[in-house]
Amino acid sequence: MFGGSGEKDKLANVFQPFVNQSANFLARKPSRDELVNTDSGYILYLEDITVSFDGFKALDELTLYIETGELRCIIGPNGAGKTTMMDVITGKTRPDFGTAFYGQRLDLLRLTEPEIASLGIGRKFQKPTVFDNHTVHDNLELAMEADKRVWATLTRKLNAEERDRIAEVLDIIGLKEEVSALAGSLSHGQKQWLEIGMLLMQNPLVLLVDEPVAGMTKQESESTAELLTTLAGDHSVVVVEHDMEFVRSIARRVTVLHEGRVLAEGPFDEVQHDAKVIEVYLGE
Ligand SMILES: Nc1ncnc2c1ncn2[C@@H]1O[C@H](COP(=O)(O)OP(=O)(O)OP(=O)(O)O)[C@@H](O)[C@H]1O
Ligand SMILES: [Mg+2]
After folding, report:
1. Prediction pTM value
2. DSSP code of 266?
3. Measured from the CB, is residue 78 less than 6 Å from ligand 1?
4. Residue 76 Cβ contacting ligand 1 at under 6 Å
5. CATH number of the domain bearing residue 157
6. Is 182 part of a structural domain of the chain?
7. Residue at 18 is within a domain
8. pLDDT block averages, 10 residues each, the chain of length 284
């Protein structure tokens, strides 16, 4: 079919750009922002999420959307399904049915827990899990390296960018003065902030925070309100909390969960005066 070798070369030249292009395409890892497409303005889409434990529905067709950069408070009586909702988002619990998307492209139900975390959904549990025997600085450094070889990193020198990031996070969480203190010596509130700082070291897009001010003093609670408010915008922040004074102080939009469903949603003052919400709280 081909005349001579010259003909073959010509053909190869025609195809070469395409070959290169596809090789480039395959070799290039898409960035996280390309994967987590938020062009629509929303970062989390939960629809009809149902989770049953032995026939009991902890979530019952829960539908909830979180806007990019918003600070959303989720409230509701004990057992409403708040923590279970976070478990679904982080891949810890798989729903019986429903859909959960992270941005427009990523199906959370098809990703593993570590994949979800490394794609930028950070979660803070109620009990701080800082390394007590390490300094505040080293806790942040370890968090930055969490998905690399953790313990080998303490012997390695940090580059300028990493040092800057640690300084920046120390500033955000208000622990600059404590940089060399052992995490074990921090107050309860400071440990909680350090843990938020450890999440920030991984540059999350979404922060899920379950009952951040439980056990805090009033002043610590106020500082936490300030911290979470600062983080919104750059991050999408979802906060579950029972402390209504705290919720009032930070809330823009509040979602009330009850029996695994959304009972009410809107600005704090509106939700607070909602007859259904009042009934659920008084009936507790
Ligand atoms: N692993 C599990 N096995 C069985 N039941 C569970 C499990 N996890 C949660 N539940 C039940 O599901 C319901 C919802 O629990 P969940 O922890 O999500 O509530 P919550 O809104 O976070 O409550 P709280 O405000 O007390 O933290 C509760 O009735 C709880 O007992
Ligand atoms: Mg809970």
Report:
1. 0.86
2. E
3. yes
4. yes
5. 3.40.50.300
6. yes
7. no
8. 48 48 57 83 97 96 97 96 97 97 94 93 85 96 68 63 92 97 96 95 94 94 96 96 93 93 95 92 71
